């Protein structure tokens, strides 16, 4: 047997496999839950920490950007140190980060502890998925991944509502404290039940390439967010943007001359992958902004309680779950190009429609509006994701899937960054921030986010009109 695929002396018991599957699924649930649970709690956090509700985007950005930064490292660490050790460390770091977040007394402290939490969260799904791949027999791999993916769908569904409920009955601290007992049980279970596997032939980590990617991602985030939240001057913003561009170009030059880059540029020779990846990056900016903007609009501008704001996100999630099958039917009938071009415009229009929100809008109409957005947004994810992964094949699946995960998290971070910057800018132009007068700032922000999203339809227009076949086998956890 090759050294790179070691196996235990005896096959794992059915009980061990079942426990490990639940463990990985719970880790994925914790990761996705914490990506959305804070959104409805931001106004309460702001009041507690003495900040303005419209200046809290860094709490969300810190988590998603850290996850994007750590994704390229997680697989290499698991290969080098072993899946059990890395997964155990991921749960431990995530739990410690959650406990520290709950004890933060300033916004700066909270942002730093969210970074710690993001380091652990970034490794939960990739390493857990790798452990399933190496432990489960081939015939059980896809059903196992499907089982692991279910909690990843439930997390975003209940996250905003659970966050609002915890804030209302207790305090915002409990959205982090609920992770602690789960994390303790997870650490013990990982130590006892998770089988260890590693790859002794793991190549040397591409540290220069990794640092170039990190510099590029962090620089563009600070350039977009720093002006509104940190008061960075225009000249510094320009320097950061140039630094980001230079870092990404330098990575491209670096990747073509090293034997084992983190992400091979050969992936971009696959037309569907390159179009899907770029389309995901820009279309998801709007989709990443909406879960941040909508709870703020409902609480800050319309006077909803945290729990009521969380409940209002349920129509979006429910419609999204119900529309996933429709996307596949439309793709088979009309092709990826027509579906993605038309649906991207519809998503942009759905986002821009929130610019018509008023305090006098009937509740039923607001629910219908949220459901329509959730439906078209979910179809967009399904179409973009299957397009990106469908032609990777076996050889590029691992690297391509990791790059795709990175882009997903980066675009989520950029979405909140762009939304926060726009909201701050328009609020400053208005000059006052009472609940009634801040609505025009939200209107302008939703309109801009909708234009950005609709404009990204041009990327999907570059597809051939005969690309119709959805991916035969994709990782179910990437369907969200």
TrEMBL record:
Chain segments annotated as transmembrane: 56-78, 85-105, 111-132, 144-166, 172-195, 207-224, 236-256, 268-286, 292-318, 339-357, 363-383, 403-426, 438-461
A GO term for molecular function: transmembrane transporter activity
Membrane topology, from the record: Multi-pass membrane protein
Keywords: Cell membrane, Membrane, Transmembrane, Transmembrane helix, Transport
Family matches, as SUPFAM superfamilies: MFS general substrate transporter
Pfam families for the chain: MFS_1 (PF07690)
UniProt key word Transmembrane: yes
Subcellular location: Cell membrane
Major facilitator superfamily (MFS) profile domain ranges (all copies): 20-468
PROSITE patterns, sorted: MFS
InterPro entries for the chain: EmrB-like, MFS, MFS_dom, MFS_trans_sf
This protein's GO CC annotations: plasma membrane
NCBIfam families reported in the protein's UniProt record: efflux_EmrB (TIGR00711), PRK10504.1 (NF007799)
Name recorded for this polypeptide: Drug resistance transporter, EmrB/QacA subfamily
Organism per entry: Paraburkholderia caballeronis
């Amino acid at each position: 047997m090759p050294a790179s695929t070691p196996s235990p002396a005896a096959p794992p018991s059915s009980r061990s496999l079942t426990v490990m599957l639940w463990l990985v699924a719970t880790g994925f649930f914790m990761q996705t839950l914490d990506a959305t649970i804070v959104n409805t709690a931001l106004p309460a956090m702001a009041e507690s920490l003495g900040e303005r509700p419209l200046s809290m985007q860094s709490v969300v950005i810190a988590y998603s950007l850290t996850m994007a930064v750590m994704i390229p490292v997680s697989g290499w660490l698991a290969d080098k140190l072993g899946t059990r050790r890395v997964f155990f460390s991921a749960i431990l770091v995530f739990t410690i980060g959650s406990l520290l977040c709950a004890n933060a007394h300033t916004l700066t402290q909270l942002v730093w502890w969210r970074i710690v939490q993001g380091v652990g969260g970034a490794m939960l799904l990739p390493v857990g998925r790798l452990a399933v791949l190496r432990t489960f027999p081939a015939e059980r791999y896809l059903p196992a991944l499907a089982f692991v993916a279910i909690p990843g769908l439930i997390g975003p569904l209940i996250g905003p509502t659970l966050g609002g409920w915890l804030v209302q009955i207790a305090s915002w601290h409990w959205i982090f404290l609920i992770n602690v007992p789960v994390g303790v049980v997870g650490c013990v279970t990982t130590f006892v039940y998770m089988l260890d596997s590693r790859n002794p032939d793991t190549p040397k980590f591409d540290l220069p390439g990794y640092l170039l990617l990190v510099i590029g991602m962090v620089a563009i985030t600070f350039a977009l967010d720093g002006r509104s939240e940190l008061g960075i001057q225009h000249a510094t913003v320009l320097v950061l943007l140039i630094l980001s561009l230079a870092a990404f170009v330098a990575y491209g030059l670096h990747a073509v001359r090293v034997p084992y880059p983190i992400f091979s540029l050969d992936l971009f020779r696959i037309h569907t992958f390159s179009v899907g990846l770029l389309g995901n990056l820009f279309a998801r900016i709007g989709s990443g902004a909406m879960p941040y903007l909508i709870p703020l609009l409902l609480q800050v501008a319309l006077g909803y309680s945290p729990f009521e704001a969380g409940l209002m996100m349920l129509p979006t999630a429910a419609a999204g779950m119900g529309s996933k099958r429709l996307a596949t039917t439309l793709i088979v009938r009309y092709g990826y190009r027509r579906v993605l071009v038309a649906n991207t415009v519809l998503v942009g229009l759905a986002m821009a429609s929130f610019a018509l929100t008023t305090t006098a809008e009937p509740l039923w109409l607001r629910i219908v509006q949220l459901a329509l957005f959730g439906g078209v947004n979910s179809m967009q994810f399904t179409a973009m994701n299957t397009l990106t992964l469908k032609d990777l094949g076996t050889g590029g699946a691992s690297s391509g899937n990791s790059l795709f995960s990175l882009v997903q998290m980066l675009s989520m971070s950029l979405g909140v960054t762009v939304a926060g910057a726009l909201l701050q800018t328009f609020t400053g132009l208005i000059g006052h921030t009472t609940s009634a007068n801040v609505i025009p700032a939200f209107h302008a922000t939703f309109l801009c986010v909708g234009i950005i999203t609709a404009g990204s339809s041009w990327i999907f227009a570059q597809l051939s009109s005969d690309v119709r076949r959805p991916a035969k086998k994709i990782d179910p956890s990437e369907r969200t």
